[in-house]
Amino acid sequence: MNLESKVIGKPVSRVDGRLKTTGTAQYSADQRPSEDRPMHAVLVKSGIPSGRITGFDLSAVQGMDGFVRFLSHLDGALIRSIKNPADGSFAAGEEYTPFESDRVDFVGQHIGLVVARALETAEAAAKAVVVKYEASTARIAFDSPDAEVRQPILYNTGEELQVSRGDVDAALAKATHTVQATYTTPIEHHNPIEPSATLAVWDGDHVTVYDATQGSVNDKNYVAFGMSLDPENVRVLNPFIGGGFGCKGFTWPHSLIAAAAARVLDAPVLLVLSRKDMYTSCGHRPYTEQEVTLAADTDGVLTATRHLTDSYRSPVGDHVEPCGLTTAMLYRCDNLEVAHNVRVLNRPSGTPLRSPGEAPGTFALESAMDELAEKLGMDPVELRRRNHTDIDQRNGRKWSSKHLLDCYDRGAERIGWARRRAPGTWREGKDLVGLGMATACYPGYRTPTQTRLTLDRDGTLHVAVAVQDIGTGLYTVLAQMVADRFRTSPDTVRVLIGDSDLPPGPLAGGSMTTASVAAAVDDACRVLSETLRARLVKIGKTLGNEPLVVDGGALRTGALSVPMTELIPTGSPAIAAEGGTNDIYGFAGGVETDKSFYSFGAIFAEVRIDRDYGIIRVPKMTGVFDVGRVINAKTARSQMLGGMTFGIGMALMEETFIDDKTGRFVNPSLGEYYVPVNADVHELDVEMLDIPDYDFNPFGARGLGEISNVGASAAIANAVYNATGIRVRHLPIRLDDLLEGLPR
Ligand code: MOS
């Protein structure tokens, strides 16, 4: 009997669903590991964008009932300097050590910590600390004339940020059809519902950190380095995370500050970032200005592409928003130039946010493609078909598996693309109606992962790996993978993740966890099968070649059925196996291969725009995705719904404003930073082609977290153009962008 099809690809409900919906799942700030109530810590943050701290006046604080301690750079070396850690064992959001010096580089920088017995006291005390500064010249405005401009060489995946091939200028000189335009995207914040939080508990030289992080292993190495500890002396626990979207990916100074405070005070310390803290403490997507130039012949074949991105970084964080990387690989084009500049500004540090680079980059590229189609008088889908490539344009390799043309076909059919009309001509009642589309894509990443499997006497399988479920469904996907290999039900698999003491796995970023654990779980299952076969032979059984089936209280193969109690006699330990892989895909220094790994898709949007008020609604979006084998139809679809919803937010709502004079974010709250709510989201229509990519891993799955956010904002912007004839080249698009020019 082969039950494989009963597990993989099925819409298995979340195994942790009950814990989450009943409020029994324990997030970092919920943890109370001991009787000792933790001390509460609140950050003191810089109020100026550049300068030096000359002193702290604590006179209003010291008498406060329950105030325990104030910590700052004046307390000496609490934290080991983390600049350029020699072992490169972790990725941090900032190349800066908190409390190392009196220097201030942006508003919101952590410059002190108040610890008190009650949260209310800590909050009051943090407000009452008076900081004295010596301010120096700050460069905050994007166009600050004397800001240092850098051309970074590599993105953090190791990919080149400055790319050139062929001769763009020569091709442009000969071109018959060109478009050139500048597109801008705003500062955006992640805004996960769970704020970052760290509870640090020391026991002698060992610290346990309950940290809201997307990477327990990375976080462990960071804390170990900063606390001058052997990594074995740090344990990071993160069994549940309430979203991250990138802001809990690399680790940030607050985790070290909490650990240092708990060490100094010899007591558990809990530091929960406020919503406002979240805007300056763990990154954002920086504002971008992107100039895109496209040239095509009369058949619509691209002859030149140029994509220049201007963005910024903080003085202490090196994030680059890599907008042009997609452009360098997506369409066939021999003459191409992609460049990225960053200005060093006194702003908080940026970091990856929901398809970093791809999301803002495809807003520009896919808007420009729409403008080119318009100039050519060509259907936008047809223009993309004509520039389709079976070869990764960056390296000349064939794709492992690519079905993008099918995505265009299926999407066009599902949205009713044939209904589309000339710009500004489709009216229904008071509404202008339009359709738009864009290509979606996201790299296939995989990193080294180890896994431990255990088979119990009662027939339960346990899978353990130091990865984390940030809300994506990984608990369930892991149970399905193991269940599949032993032809059993996911109910018989217990999943142990969210603990850095387990065999190491990747951080939950770059949509890479499923593909990474797939290879490791497959290998561990192979090792466990061999171990079980050897055990069966040892107890005198004769085996054929049929696969092993864990069937409740028995292990079966072929006609043989052996009770677990016979396989694992009373008093014997459970049978354990470890397996894994050190293979790396999608990052520099990875596996030598003649293939390129990418997921693709097509996003279509219908918009309706009120002709009197310019209000933009999105009654329907369709996304068709080629993401390899889908492990769980339900959680995968939920990922796609989430990404397309992000697309609506990015296109129409999300924006953080910065005050160029003071360097402060103006709207750091969920009340003033708009995200889509249910009333903004109508029909989201998702199809996944579900074609396995066995070159990528033995389960054939590629990543699918971020792709549905890529191209989504361009699809909506292009639909707005189709509805109104108004081309908006900045995000978000608001009704005041349309009011004046709306066709009457
Ligand atoms: Mo994601 S922005 O790679 O956490």
Overview of this protein structure:
This protein is an alpha+beta fold and 744 residues long. Among the domains are: 4-25 and 447-581, Aldehyde oxidase/xanthine dehydrogenase, molybdopterin binding domain (Aldehyde Oxidoreductase, domain 4, 2-Layer Sandwich), CATH 3.30.365; 357-444 and 592-741, 2-Layer Sandwich (Aldehyde Oxidoreductase, domain 4). Strand 10 (197-203) and strand 11 form a beta hairpin. The mean pLDDT is 96.
Short description:
This protein has 744 residues and is of the alpha+beta class. The protein contains 16 helices and 30 strands. The strands form 7 sheets. Strands 3-5-1-13-10-11-12 form a 7-stranded mixed sheet, sandwiched between helices. Strands 7, 8, 9, 14, 15 and 16 form a 6-stranded mixed sheet that branches.
State the fourth-level CATH superfamily of the domain at 357-444 and 592-741.
Aldehyde oxidase/xanthine dehydrogenase, molybdopterin binding domain
Q: What percent of the residues sit in helical stretches (DSSP H or I)?
A: 10-25%
Quickly name the level 1 CATH class of the domain at 357-444 and 592-741: Alpha Beta
How many β-strands, per DSSP? 30
Average pLDDT confidence is: 96
Strand residue percentage: 15-25%
Gyration radius, rounded = 27 Å
Q: Termini separation (Å)?
A: 66 Å
Low-confidence stretches are none
Annotated CATH topology of the domain at 357-444 and 592-741: Aldehyde Oxidoreductase, domain 4
Strand order of the largest sheet: 3-5-1-13-10-11-12
Shape: globular
What structural category characterises the helix and strand content? alpha+beta
Query: How does the major sheet shape up?
Result: 7 strands, mixed
Instruction: Give a list of the ligands.
Output: dioxothiomolybdenum(VI) ion
What is the helix tally?
A: 16
Per CATH, the architecture of the domain at 357-444 and 592-741 is 2-Layer Sandwich
